């Protein structure tokens, strides 16, 4: 039998299907329990810059089911909200939304290493993935190895951290993932930006500067 592009015995296929169904049911229950509590919190969420000397790397994924692809969006900014680098990518893919987000986080980690980034806070709206990397929450067997690999990277990089933010505060990475729907391969910008995110970056920089001035006035 063929499952997820691989030839496997019927028993392995059935076991994988049962594992996937169990994870889906557990994720759904977890989501229903927190849905009502989070509505107002999400409305109040906005992107915030990291501390001075820290780079914040936001990531997001979009699944293109008709074309069996995942679209990646990654963006890095400094404490003033200035853009350091961004990336859009398109890859062949078949799997869950959590797997898509995990793959995007993994690429973000690789990119930071390639660019020799230091003192990095990774931030995304995939709460289960963030918890999975931290060793918390529900972890599907099919993603356990990937989570182990990411945890291993974090252990060896004490200057890295992982943070969750609602979609409302992850707008630039989300827009980059949408942009990747119209491209093939991978494209990276260093200290430049694709036109699709210009307005969002400027708006969030303005909000950041305004808040900093207000805090300064109070002090």
Explain what this protein looks like in three dimensions.
- Helix 2 runs parallel beside helix 4.
- This protein is 48% helix and 22% strand.
- The protein has 219 residues and is an alpha/beta fold.
- The N terminus is likely disordered.
Characteristic terms for this protein:
single chain, 219 residues, alpha/beta, 22% strand, RNase_H-like_EbsB-rel
Distance between the termini: 67 Å
Strand order of the largest sheet: 7-6-3-4-5-8
The count of β-strands is: 8
Oligomer: single chain
Overall body shape: globular
Report on the biggest sheet: 6 strands, mixed
Number of helices, counting only DSSP H or I runs of 4 residues or more: 6
Poorly predicted parts: 1-6
Helix content: 40-55%
CATH topology of the largest domain: Nucleotidyltransferase, domain 5
Looking at the overall shape, the CATH architecture of the largest domain is 2-Layer Sandwich
CATH top level class name of the largest domain: Alpha Beta
Give the topology, please.
Layout: E1 2-3, E2 6-7, H1 10-43, E3 55-64, E4 69-77, E5 83-92, H2 97-114, E6 120-124, H3 127-133, H4 141-156, E7 160-164, H5 171-179, E8 186-190, H6 198-218
Parallel strand pairs: 3-6, 6-7
Antiparallel strand pairs: 1-2, 3-4, 4-5, 5-8
């Amino acid at each position: 039998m063929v499952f997820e592009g691989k030839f496997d015995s019927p028993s392995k296929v059935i076991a994988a299907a049962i594992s996937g169904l169990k994870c889906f049911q557990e994720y759904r229950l977890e989501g229903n329990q927190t849905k009502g509590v989070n509505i107002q919190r999400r409305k109040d969420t906005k992107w915030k810059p990291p501390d001075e000397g820290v780079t914040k790397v936001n990531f997001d994924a979009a699944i293109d089911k008709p074309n069996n692809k995942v679209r990646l969006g990654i963006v890095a900014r400094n404490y003033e909200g200035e853009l350091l680098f961004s990336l859009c990518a398109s890859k062949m893919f078949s799997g869950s939304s959590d797997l898509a987000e995990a793959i995007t986080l993994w690429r973000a980690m690789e990119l930071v290493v390639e660019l020799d980034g230091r003192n990095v806070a990774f931030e995304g709206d995939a709460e289960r993935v963030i918890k999975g990397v931290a060793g918390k929450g529900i972890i599907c067997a099919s993603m356990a190895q990937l989570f182990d690999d990411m945890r291993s990277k974090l252990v060896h990089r004490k200057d890295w951290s992982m943070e969750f933010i609602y979609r409302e505060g992850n707008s630039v990475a989300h827009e980059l993932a949408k942009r990747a729907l119209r491209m093939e391969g991978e494209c990276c910008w260093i200290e430049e930006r694709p036109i699709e995110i210009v307005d969002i970056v400027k708006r969030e920089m303005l909000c950041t500067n305004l808040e900093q001035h207000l805090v300064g006035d109070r002090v």
